[in-house]
Amino acid sequence: MRTDGTERLSVLILLTNDDGIYAPGLAAMEEELRRWGEVYVVAPATEQSGVGHSITYLTPLTAKEVYEGRRRRGWAVEGSPADCVRLGVAEFCPTRPDLVVSGINCGLNVGINVLYSGTVAAAIEGAFFGITSFAVSLEYDEHARFDEAARLARTVIQQVMERGGEPPRLYNLNIPKAALENRPQLRVVPMDVRHHGERFEKRKDPWGRDYYWTAAVPPPPDSSEETDLSVVRKGYVALSPLDFDMTRRSLLTEMASWRFRLEPNRTEDQ
After folding, report:
1. Tens digit of pLDDT for each residue in 140-159?
2. Of 21, 121, 186, 203, which is most buried by a Cβ count within 10 Å?
């Protein structure tokens, strides 16, 4: 937090997404976050859905300033969502952001889709920098009500930020369409880690060659534990605290006693 020229608390927010800088979900989130703080938009020039946590390092990253009338909207980056956060923190934000928000994504990011999501990857990148970060997604609808979803997301983010805590904190927020119909309710839940059934539709192109269209099938409902997938099916907003440390710590102590036999380097035998 910092104090601006009007002596009020202002939050410096880096906003990105994976649907591209012209996506309506990003515009709605930007407008809503500007009611609260200073927003810097750094987003992909084109849609980057499903790219996960890829970064660009074999080719240069190009970024172009984007304007809306005379107002600078932000920077369009020819790269991934994670690239946008790295570049935004290092180059475009005047100081280190207080918060990174990624979204609003058009489509939920629940279950194992979290691992494939460019939206979530951007939030993870923010957490890498030690900045509290949120990924925000809205259930797909051709006429999605992004303005209402943005208002709901901002209120959740503000309440989480007000509670403080040692950064970085990383959160995944998913909003089903049903939550925008009536008085929304929120559940704090883990991500569903059950594997989605993979199904491919085999088709022919005009030249007779085979191609495949993926169609992931979500796992059936599981009553043993509430998860992000189960609560959004019931119409609740799902908030999941995440972590990027993938170490299976329960195995570290057990594996410390293992004795591995390694073959000697061949050069040592000569």
Report:
1. 999 999 999 999 999 999 99
2. 121
